[in-house]
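User: Could you go from structure to sequence for me? I need the amino acid at each position, not a summary. Structure tokens:
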């Protein structure tokens, strides 16, 4: 009998512990925020109207409700819709900023209270979000309002990443090898086989790359999945990473980065065909990768860790925030420090 890989088991436990911590902490935040916002007649009326609308369309989802201090809701992903900043997180909270993160407001119509984990925009108007309950949301007005395109309550298989090649063709992946594809802008979704064989249920965490050359999926157990035909078929690449990859990114020079548990950071210079580990300077798990217009790279992680590179990803310098707040996403800003998002919402950089 093959012995279980201890580092893999510990890494998987860490992944679930992070999600559990987010859910518990977010639950406490939401209870407080909802109580603080309960005195607003306008908020109550809006929530009631949304509940009635959702009930009439047959969905099992309850709509997100307006909350006080939404900017400090736990946030897991962020993206740009043109110049607008959009961030998503716990209890269906979606935040919008039109002033480079100085102020945020909550999106007005979101048809779910599920934890939202991923976000992708193809232009300044059209985007998608995905998360727990297998939900996929779609917006056509830059994030102001959202519609529910997909949900799956038959099993506990949250979606961790969503990606669109264009307005019609998209992919979504998640827990236990869940993979979905659409060719009609998300109106319908069908299963996609990423793995083959008996072990075809590894967790899939992040979609990244270039559909014209190679798309990749960051996965559990040091696995990266690669497609050279736009996602129609996939090959499995086993890297030297003993843990899971949680994030990945295509850099401006065409190279790829993948990062994840215990500070493991890998690079590929052949469109994902092979991967080499880079020194990260930390053993904290890494959650997202962002690159500025000038080529500078910022990687976020747990315990307030950030890694920065000014040489295109050849070397990285690690820095830890004084408040050690877990960071889940980052967005670059022209001429300013990057916007950071984490368990305490949108946070300043560096910590005071």
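Assistant: Here is the amino acid at each position, in order:
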């Amino acid at each position: 009998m093959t012995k279980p890989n201890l580092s893999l088991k510990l890494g998987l436990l860490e992944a679930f512990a992070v999600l559990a911590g987010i859910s518990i902490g977010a639950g406490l935040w939401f209870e407080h925020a909802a109580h603080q916002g309960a005195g607003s007649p306008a908020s109550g009326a809006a929530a009631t109207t949304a509940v009635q609308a959702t009930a009439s369309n047959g969905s099992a989802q309850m709509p997100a409700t307006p909350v006080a201090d939404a900017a400090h809701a736990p946030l897991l992903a962020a993206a740009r819709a043109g110049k607008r900043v959009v961030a998503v997180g716990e209890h269906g909270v979606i935040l919008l900023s039109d002033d480079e993160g100085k102020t945020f407001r909550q999106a007005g119509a979101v048809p779910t209270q599920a934890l939202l984990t991923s976000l992708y925009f193809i232009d300044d108007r059209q985007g998608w979000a995905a998360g727990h309950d297998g939900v996929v949301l779609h917006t056509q007005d830059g994030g102001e309002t959202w519609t529910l395109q997909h949900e799956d309550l038959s099993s506990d298989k949250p979606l961790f990443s969503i990606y669109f090649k264009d307005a019609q063709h998209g992919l979504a992946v998640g827990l236990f090898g869940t993979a979905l594809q659409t060719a009609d802008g998300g109106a319908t979704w069908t299963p996609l086989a990423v793995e083959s064989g008996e072990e075809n249920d590894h967790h899939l965490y992040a979609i990244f790359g270039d559909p014209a050359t190679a798309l990749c999926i960051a996965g559990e157990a040091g696995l990266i999945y690669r497609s050279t035909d736009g996602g129609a078929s996939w090959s499995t690449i086993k890297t030297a990473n003993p843990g899971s990859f949680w994030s990945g990114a295509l850099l401006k020079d065409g190279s790829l980065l993948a990062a994840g548990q215990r500070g493991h950071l890998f690079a590929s210079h052949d469109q994902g065909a092979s991967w080499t580990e880079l020194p990260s300077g930390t053993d904290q798990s890494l959650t997202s990768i962002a690159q500025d217009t000038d080529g500078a790279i910022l990687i976020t992680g747990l315990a307030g860790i950030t890694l920065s590179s000014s040489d295109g990803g050849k070397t990285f310098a690690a820095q830890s925030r004084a408040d050690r707040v877990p960071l889940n996403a980052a967005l670059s800003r022209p001429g300013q420090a990057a916007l950071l998002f984490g368990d305490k919402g949108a946070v300043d950089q560096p910590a005071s």
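One structural detail worth keeping in mind: The chain has one domain: 6-347.
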